[in-house]
Design goal:
The protein is α/β, with parallel strands linked by helices. About 40% of the residues lie in helices and about 15% in strands.
Amino acid sequence: MIELNADIGEGCDDASLMPYLARVSIACGGHTGDAASMTAALRLAAEHGVAAGAHPGYPDRARFGRQALAASEDEIAAWVMQQTELLAEQAARLGIRLAHVKPHGALYNVAARDAGVARAIARAVAALDPALALVGLSGSQLIAAGQGAGLAVLHEAFADRRYQPNGQLVSRETTGALIVDSQAASEQARALAHGRPVGTAGGGAIRVRVDTICLHSDTPNALNIARAVHAALNHG
């Protein structure tokens, strides 16, 4: 069974999504998030029996971590470690152990194609807790770096995003990059879960290896998408 995950703790209606999720990645102070929002998200995850992980990003709240920052690999490793530790501390107070780390936004996309950035993230996660899984874009440099660091990895695909022919995601700034129709999202999720090709921007199709499928809490129509995707994954 392919699981459904979402990125939470970003100021959206997380509670309504939780019944449909198996895993959540929680904003932990980089692109957004503070002690109160982290604690609330962790409690929601615990109440619903959902695996919780860290969602570190570029420390750029003004742009929500969605534009890459010039930074050394050591700086990136430090940001990932600091943000993940902050969430882990909040989790420990609630008796919760984090399950994974998934970079956010531009950091996720850069790590998908930049081997150096990917290695910096994997190194930070392994140093913090080698039992943490690393979630990354399916087949990307981040997956390879996680495997190289001895971490468990989860190949991630997306129900609510369009793909490029090379397997990378279409930029959010591109018209049509988001899939906001629940039927279209559920059809893409069903195809991903069954190993069938999914369409790409500009035509063509690709196959994507999948361990976990993501939807975003800030995607328009997120709740209806979650319901439809959950039904598609659980009922074929």
